Amino acid sequence: MAGAERRKNRKTKRGENTLEREEENKPGNIDVDNIDQRPHWFTVLWTKLFNITNWIVIGLLIVMIISDGTLIRIVDFVFGTQLFRRFYMTQQPPPSGPPDPSQLEEEIKNFKPTILNKLDMNEIYLYNKLLQPQEISNDLSRESSVRIFLIDDFLTELECDGLVKAHHHHVDEMSKESPILCFDSIDTLHKHLKDIDKEHLVKLCNDIEVFTTGTHCLNSSFSAELTNSMHHQWSYSTAFYLGESRFSHSFGKRVYEATGLMASNGGKFQITSYPEGVGYKTHTDCTLNTEKRDRFATILVYLDDVEEGGETNFPKLGISIKPKKAQALVWTNMDEDGNCDPMSIHEASKVQVGKKYILQRWFYYENFYSLGRRQKEPDIPERSPGQGYVSCDAYDHGSCRWYDEWGYDHIVDYVAMKHKLH
Ligand SMILES: O=C(O)CCC(=O)C(=O)O
Ligand SMILES: [Fe+2]
After folding, report:
1. Are both 49 and 160 inside the same structural domain?
2. Which ligand is located closest to the Cα atom of residue 311?
3. 145 within a domain of the structure (yes/no)
4. 0.85 surpassed by complex ipTM
5. Number of structural domains, the chain?
6. What sections of the protein cross the membrane (predicted)?
7. Which protein residue's CA is at the shortest distance from atom 4 of ligand 1?
């Protein structure tokens, strides 16, 4: 009863107030109290301007905070997101193409190397699909500095197929002429000649000055003869460089987001195909010395499945990976101090049935001026523009690989100045 009374009173009060307000607002009434309080026009203008300036300043501050990434960094810190890295740390890709000689000296002098010494694996989205790196480790690998990860669907079907097609097209174009054959030593050449059991070639090779002066490469006619006898028992590698395709940029960015491997420390992009019966020798991607301008990590993407064989094996770690289309394999070759880890030794086992295709890019511990740029070809040995070359090393299987560009290792001059490149 008391409650109902209170409600009624409140209603009445509200009613009175409304009536009072209506009374005040009647057109003929003048609000005497407010006449003197009405601000001067200048004050009104000043207040308005002040408000606008305020908003501009606040707006500018917000823009500054956002563009500088501070706000995003705070969000990252609080929520553990990776927004700053994703949107702000876009890598400055090294300029592609041959450097301009007039500016070369200055550019080299001003070049500041970047050190890359760890992987920073992250989940990323690729066309709305979440890609999750998965670490492959066992007791053996945990004892070493080598880290190995797999990422499914790192390339799209279209990208895989497109790369394979481009690779084939290039190899076909360059296979119209037989390649120049190069060997890491005369002993290796002899070993290969013995393998193919060509007595007359062995004799020929003893009779003539086999290597073109200043190189470990055979001249064109000897190369052609040997090529026929070796039945193309080699893998084929074609290379492209950053800026030579739109894919190179998007791949570089994708790799950086998923692994922390910066484009600035990346070398060439290499596609390799292995015919049936071919693999690749056991090797480390870095050289076992103290050189820091060396391959810290490798990303390898399988561009197709392989029916049988063709695994990537890490024999010292007891790890073997079967090729799976679009899957990326990422591993480190050097430790955090830049020492090449012998435990990273790996090989491509022979393809038993089918064909194998991979895309690889190497990332260097310490980058250098010419890294990732297409090099000027040396003058020797002479080679026509559409001619590939094959490089053979002294290993039991898969020791030969065809390249569409010069492997400078086989040029004696280059061997002498290797790693002293800018
Ligand atoms: O084909 C593979 O699985 C490995 C290739 C490789 O290690 C290389 O080319 O350096
Ligand atoms: Fe390798």
Report:
1. no
2. 1
3. yes
4. yes
5. 2
6. 55-79
7. 348
